[in-house]
Design a protein that fits this description.
This protein is mostly helical. It contains four helices and no strands. The protein has a domain of 50 residues: 434 Repressor (Amino-terminal Domain). 52% of the residues lie in helices and 0% in strands.
Length: 79
């Protein structure tokens, strides 16, 4: 943002994302949704690229909602 000369208020106006949300993200106290992150990156003319030697096959696939519900129920029944 500094390189582009864009402040939080200007970015908030350009992206239609709440200024407090952006400010919280920038200081590390708040997360951005994937959607908002895409909007911010687009507004700044940036893209995310994988780190060198990144192996996406090492990532575990996310559980679907049925698996999450089943594991949650089994965890509760153990107590």
């Amino acid at each position: 943002m500094n390189v582009r000369g864009i402040g939080v208020n200007v970015l908030a106006r350009q992206t239609h994302i709440n200024r407090n949300t952006l400010s919280g993200f920038l200081c590390g106290s708040r997360a951005l949704s994937n959607r908002n992150l895409d909007i911010v990156l687009d507004a700044l003319g940036l893209t995310l690229v994988p780190k060198a030697h990144f192996d996406p096959s090492s990532l575990k696939p996310p559980k679907n909602d049925d698996e999450n519900a089943a594991s949650s129920k089994s965890a509760k029944s153990d107590f």
